[in-house]
TrEMBL record:
CDD domains, per database record: CYP164-like
Phylogenetic classification of the source organism: Bacteria, Bacillati, Actinomycetota, Actinomycetes, Pseudonocardiales
Organism listed in the record: Pseudonocardia eucalypti
Protein name: Cytochrome P450
Database matches in PROSITE patterns: CYTOCHROME_P450 (PS00086)
Pfam families according to UniProt: p450
Length: 416
């Protein structure tokens, strides 16, 4: 406990269903917070953005002794996973710089823009399924029909993965995503480790096949990406592809689900967006701000770090609460907790992180979110919740596990 008596507790009852009251308390009572478990928490927009732009570490090996580190290491040791190449998400410069430079060569704006026709076709097919489900049963699950399959299918198509692998890859990715949450349970570590080994083996086999039979796809482009003679090794290729499946997929699921739910809970903003296509781009920025698909990110201080009138010691694990920064009244004003799709500075949201580790897939997530949400609400203008939302119980990649939707039969148009 700190000298103020305040303790930020992400394990408190109700946190995963609605963490925003907890974030408001953090900002009000101790926005630069030293937790008794040995980590620090930042909740203000200015402090979070400053940390993201800094050159602090993302490699957990730099964390100093703390109760939290001891718990995690004790559980991880029992899985005997050993060392493996890390994705750029978990690497500092110069390794991060090298990996990102190579991957960026294949992840261009032109390549992302070219995906829009595919995304439109996939969304429209999902909306056909939703219409059929509503017509026959009265409701549909937005997660199962649209939010989950869309980004997964897009990633598989981008990479050129064999169709036979999709179902199993989806299951493995669902297990691996738990590694982005606080984990100290030995059995969970074992499940994650087993899924990690299997997905690595599967992707390595596809890479080997692609080397012999190149295609017009992202995986081939990653294999061929070169900078002054430097190329990704097979192990590095596998790590970056796993990152696309685990981090890239789940964040887009939450963007579509959280964004749709926010509109359903704010009928005036639903109507505003439905009637004004010119708001589409800014609306996605505001939906990202209002309920971030990724709630937090972390850095490890390499030297004493001054922030908010306090000094964080070297070797400290610092949790930057992106979702709290996105609702900070000091930055956004007194209406920070309101959804305003025409908010002029909505793009200042930090949902995709910032600085050297700004999300490489942000443009793809924005594209999928924009197409999915806008086509959904314009096809079903009286869309409504069919039942209570069930949350996925995660602290970081927080979103609905199920999102039941409905629409009166006379408002459901026939498919074009």
């Amino acid at each position: 406990m700190t000298d103020t008596g305040y303790v930020f507790n992400p394990f408190a009852p109700g946190y995963t269903d609605d963490p925003y009251p907890f974030y408001a308390e953090l900002r009000a009572l101790e926005p630069v917070h030293a937790n008794p478990l040995g980590f620090w928490v930042l909740g203000r927009h200015a402090d979070v953005t400053e940390l993201l732009r800094s050159r602090q570490s993302v490699e957990d090996r730099n964390v100093g002794p703390s109760p939290l580190r001891d718990l995690a290491e004790a559980a991880a040791a029992q899985t005997q996973t050993g060392n493996r190449p890390m994705s750029m998400l978990d690497r500092d410069p110069p390794d991060h710089t090298r990996l990102r430079k190579l991957v960026t060569k294949a992840f261009t704006k032109r390549a992302i823009d070219a995906l829009e026709p595919l995304v439109v076709d996939l969304v429209d097919a999902a909306l056909d399924r939703i219409e059929a489900s509503i017509a026959t049963t009265g409701s549909a699950d937005l997660i199962e029909e649209l939010a989950y399959p869309l980004p997964f299918t897009v990633i598989c198509e981008m990479l050129g993965m064999p169709d036979t692998d999709h179902a199993r890859l989806r299951d493995l990715a669902a297990t691996l995503v738990r590694s982005l949450e606080p984990v100290t349970d030995v059995e969970v570590f074992k499940q994650i480790a087993a899924a990690d080994r299997e997905i690595n083996d599967r992707i390595a086999a596809v890479i080997e096949a692609k080397r012999g039979r190149p295609g017009e796809d992202l995986l081939t482009a990653l294999i061929q990406a070169e900078d002054d003679g430097d190329k990704l090794t097979d192990e590095e290729l596998v790590a970056q592809v796993v990152l696309l499946y685990v981090a890239g997929h789940e964040t887009t699921v939450n963007l579509i689900a959280n964004g749709t739910l926010a509109l359903l809970r704010h009928p005036d903003q639903f109507a505003l967006l439905a009637a004004n296509p010119e708001l589409d781009t800014n609306a996605i920025e505001e939906l990202l701000r209002y309920d971030s698909p990724v709630q937090s990110t972390r850095r490890i201080t390499l030297e004493p770090y001054a922030v908010g009138g306090r000094e964080i010691p070297a070797g400290s694990f610092v949790l930057a609460i992106l979702a709290s920064a996105n609702r900070d009244e000091e930055f956004w004003g007194p209406d920070a907790g309101e959804l305003k799709l025409d908010r002029p500075n909505a793009k200042a949201q930090v949902s995709f992180g910032g600085g050297p580790h700004h999300c490489l897939g942000a443009s793809l997530a924005r594209l999928e979110g924009r197409v999915a949400i806008t086509r959904l609400i314009r096809r079903f203008p009286t869309l409504a919740l069919a039942a209570e939302v069930t949350w996925n119980g995660r602290q970081n990649l927080r979103g609905p596990a199920t999102l039941p939707i409905t629409s009166p039969p006379d408002s459901v148009p026939s498919a074009p």
